Amino acid sequence: MFHLGGPEWIIILIIVVLLFGPGRIGKIAGEIGNSIKSFRDGLGGSAEQAEKSETKEEEKK
Predict the structure, then answer these.
(1) What is the pLDDT of residues 50-61, one digit of tens each?
(2) pTM of the model
(3) I need a surface site. Which of 5, 24, 27, 48 has the fewest CB within 10 A?
(4) DSSP string across 17-33
């Protein structure tokens, strides 16, 4: 569908830098990274909670 090569990505990168500035791009990238980490931790946490509740139910039996 979208076949972007090297020159297209360079043009997109230049446009993004012009719009947001290099300092803001670093902040945005950091926020995205923190969001992804938080999301993964949330997914792992719910699995751990489910596992703990299953273990507790088995112990009660």
Answers:
(1) 666 666 666 665
(2) 0.48
(3) 5
(4) HHHH-HHHHHHHHHHHH
